[in-house]
Amino acid sequence: MKPLLLGLSMAAVLAACATATSPTGRKQYVGAVSQAQLDQLGAQEFAKAKQQMQLSNDPRQNAYVRCVVDDLTRELPPGWQAQWETALFVDDSPNAFALPGGKVGVNTGIFSVARNQDQLAAVIAHEIGHVVSRHHDERITRQQGTNTLLGIGSAILGSTYGSGAGNAAGQIGGAAAQTFYLLPNSREQESEADIVGQKLAAEAGFDPRQAVNLWQNMIAAGGSRPPQWLSTHPDPQSRIAELSGRAAALVPVYEQARASGHTPKCG
User: Fold this and answer.
1) C-alpha to C-alpha distance for 118 and 247, rounded to whole angstroms
2) pLDDT, tens only, 112-135
3) Phi, psi of 29, deg, nearest 5
4) Catalytic residue among 75, 127, 138, 203
5) CA distance to 12, 32, 89, 264, per residue, from 44 (Å)
6) Residue by residue, what is the 3-state secondary structure of 214-232?
7) Is 242 a catalytic residue?
8) By C-alpha distance, which of 95, 96, 71, 117 is closest to 84?
9) Intervals of the chain under pLDDT 50
10) Which residue in 117, 112, 98, 114 sits closest to 42, CA to CA?
11) Would you say 20 and 28 are in contact if contact means Cβ atoms under 8 Å apart?
12) In this predicted model, what pLDDT tens digit does every residue of 210-250 receive, in sequence order?
């Protein structure tokens, strides 16, 4: 009966989710929260970041970031083109993020590795790629489903072998889920955001080949990183190889965009 109950519970969890197709054609489980709720969560987290971090008052750098974001979001599919809000944070770490609800945050440290507008566009387009690919929705849905199943599994084991076994199973299962289910999904999402972002940058008139240079700069900047199988990001060298392979196919897209008048002049 217990395997049957677990199987039925798994089916119920999956049934509560909706399926969607990502921009690259990948099947996704989404729907744990509505788009309106996601947008609200994004707005809340963005407001929190602006309260907790120092905002840059450099008008030139702010205009630079705003220009790149505007040129990129102009090329998004219908429904994603609403005015995007940007914030530039005084922080030496080379990082950026985008959130549901049209929010983009960039650290000033990104300028140390993104050395021209095309490289900055590669960073920001990648982050926007997470949003338009519904990765936040997917992560929340998967996390909630995993937590539900772990709770059910612990309860079943606890009823058979005692609470100690149930608690241990929950802890071990949580570690296994994090390593073999949630983190690999993050790497999958990172690779997908690379694909979506590189294409978006090319369509906006930014050179897609500069994404390769960006990651070469990232590697040159150094920094320790965990093994690839325990990382939420693809291995840098693998990432560069994939970006380089796609860049050649995207050059005609970039050239057509430039011929059509998409000629970013951000800095």
Assistant:
1) 13
2) 999 999 999 999 999 999 999 998
3) -105, 120
4) 127
5) 31, 18, 17, 31
6) HHHHHHHCCCCCCCHHHCC
7) no
8) 71
9) 1-15, 147-184, 226-230
10) 98
11) yes
12) 999 998 998 888 755 544 444 556 677 888 899 999 999 99
